[in-house]
Amino acid sequence: MTMREVPLKQLIDGHAHLNEIDGIEPALERARAAGVMLIVAVGMDTPSNRRTLELAREYPEFIHPAVGYHPWSIVPKQVDQVMEHLAEQLPSCVALGEVGLDYKVRIKKPIQWDVFGRVLELAAGCKKPVIVHSRYSHQRSHQMVTAAGIEKAVFHWYSGPLDVLERIITDGYYVSCTPALAYSTHHQTAIRQVPLERILIETDCPVAYRGKTSEPAHLMDTLDHLSRLRSLPLAEAARITTANARKFFGFRF
Hints:
The chain has 253 residues and is of the alpha/beta class. It contains nine helices and ten strands. The strands form two sheets. The protein has an eight-stranded parallel β-sheet, with helices on both faces. Strands 9-10 form a two-stranded antiparallel sheet. Strand 2, helix 2 and strand 3 form a beta-alpha-beta unit.
């Protein structure tokens, strides 16, 4: 029996932009066939949050929503309106996300800091896990998460400095890995250093990896790369990461 023939039927995709996927029903069927049991669908702004919540209502046993305000989506004149919608919807979601900082985009840093601080305050008040985007902003993102008193956070697709990663782990937080483990040396280096019990797997679909547009069914690719990187049997990698996701998001089944 090869690694890909191991029967794995309880995988959890911890981060998927399902609102961006065309042909959602066939994509979900392929995900189920690939062993995906649950998907955490994330939002980035009010339209994507609404679509994410709609999908979660259509597929309540399979899709679990997280609403967010991504730094790419910030429009200063709309911040208060978006925050109001987040405050209304977050209590019924499994997490806040995708939120964070991104120092490669043109949104001014003080505006990003203000928005991130406000959404973290919402998450702390609801005691919700936070899915953190931290491109080129790892240290500040971590500092703001801890300052807000967030109990659970996952630093999505972590590829940052190892000294910041050490503080993330010391503070009890998680990191996630994606199919980019196949080729990203920074991502590989980080994931090698993380305790197995702090790793979540995801697709971040429909991100394209080496030209291949991803979907939830490709979660097995992430698992494959993780098992090889950490020299783990595929089934053991699946068991650990599923247990981690259940603990992080509070899934009970």
